[in-house]
Amino acid sequence: MTKKIAVITHRSDHRGGMERYAMDIAYQLATNGQLATLLTKCYPPTTTLQKAMTIRSLGLRWLPAKLQTLLFSIYCWWYKKNNPEVILFTCSKVFCPDIMICGGTHKGYLQATQKTLTLMDRLEIFYEKQAYQRATIVVAHSAEMRQELMTLYGIAADKIITLYPPVDQKNFFLKKDPAAKQRFFKQLNIEVGNKRIFLFPSSGHKRKGLDNLLKAFSHFEQEAVLLVAGKRPRITQSNLIALGYCSDMSALYAACDYTILASVYEPFGLVAVESILCGTPVLLSEVCGCNPVLSEKARITFKADRLEEIISAIATALQTPLTIQHPSACIHYSVDIQAHLEEILHFFKKRVSHHSYE
After folding, report:
1. Count of CB atoms within 10 A of residue 1's CB?
2. What sign for the dihedral angle of Cα 45, 26, 159, 169?
3. Cα–Cα distance between 130 and 198 in angstroms, integer?
4. CB atoms within 10 A of CB 321
5. Positions in the chain short of pLDDT 70
6. What is the pLDDT of residue 58?
């Protein structure tokens, strides 16, 4: 009989790429009858999630973030001690992972942004080192992540498997429909007229380049709108519309003309893959880890630190619009969740071949 698997994630929601990835894995395991539980740090489960799977939520939201992480890690250790037969599939930095997912590293972020190392940064790096070093295997979501794990954290190459993240194709698929687009924006009470709509999905605006995007879009006030989905920015601009967090990202992607990220550090960029699957081309900074697996027919790239290049990319998109008729042909890896999960578990079993997991 196959061992059960517990998925560990900070949040049981779909606010960001890693949270969505964790929930997709949890749903797939639940469908397969392999999910033991979903362990989450501080966000209460929704009714829908409660019906789909068993969830343990600690309710730590009232504590400082770093203390939340410490207590959550201790709790996961306690869970593992009391459930030794359960495999821990973790997307959070805890002390006892069996399978550790790496969608980005703090050292890599600090290196890319040239930030001064603070006490909080040192604590974050400590949590990361504990997680990566104690894990049986580490799953890197891009070639860049694999390299950072080896060079910045000293993780052995034979412990790492590089697998690009999958996407739920039941939710993200080609659905371009002008009538549906009008209805969608009408429901949101948004009037854009004939302007081209560029979507910026983000909760970390500084890392994803919102400041430079605002400067660039100030040159296109009559032609384009920048739609921000995620954390509401403090800055206002005539052609900036802040949506807050959106519960139906697939409909939002489909309703927009482009998705854009000007990231200074982007380990993969799952939103770009989701956007293309919905038929919406992307404008991406050159550092995005997903660039090598996306067709040039579906993307325009630029250097995030060069404002003139961002302006040029937007102008090109306006003057020569990209269209996607066959999304799957524009993504050069398998986005199937079950296939992704099987590869991870196969690699994990090879690493612990002296034990029986069947």
Report:
1. 5
2. negative
3. 39
4. 11
5. 1-2, 12-16, 42-63, 65-66, 354-358
6. 64
Strand ranges in 79-135 using DSSP code E only, listed in sequence order: 87-90, 99-102
Query: What are the helix (H) ranges across 136-265?
Result: 143-153, 178-187, 210-217, 249-255
The answer to whether 253 and 280 have CB atoms below 8 angstroms apart is: yes
C-alpha distance from residue 168 to each of 150, 219, 250, 270, 280 (Å)? 30, 36, 10, 11, 16
Q: Is 228 exposed, middle or buried (0-12, 13-18, 19+ CB in 10 A)?
A: buried
The token duo for 322 is 């990209």
Asked if 160 contacts 143 with a C-beta cutoff of 8 angstroms, the reply is no
Neighbours of 260 (CB within 10 A): 32
Task: Write down how long the chain is.
Answer: 358
Which has the closest alpha carbon to 263: 91, 17, 19, 92? Answer: 17
Assigned token pair, 257:
């003309």
pLDDT digits (tens, 9 = 90+) for 100-125: 999 999 999 999 888 889 998 998 99
Identify the three-state secondary structure at position 266. coil
pLDDT of residue 293: 96
pTM of the predicted structure, to 2 decimals = 0.89
* HSE value, Cβ hemisphere, 13 Å, CA-based, for 33: 2
Give the chain's domains with CATH numbers: 5-166+336-351 (3.40.50.2000), 178-330 (3.40.50.2000)
pLDDT at 53 (0 to 100): 55
Whole-number pLDDT of residue 356: 47
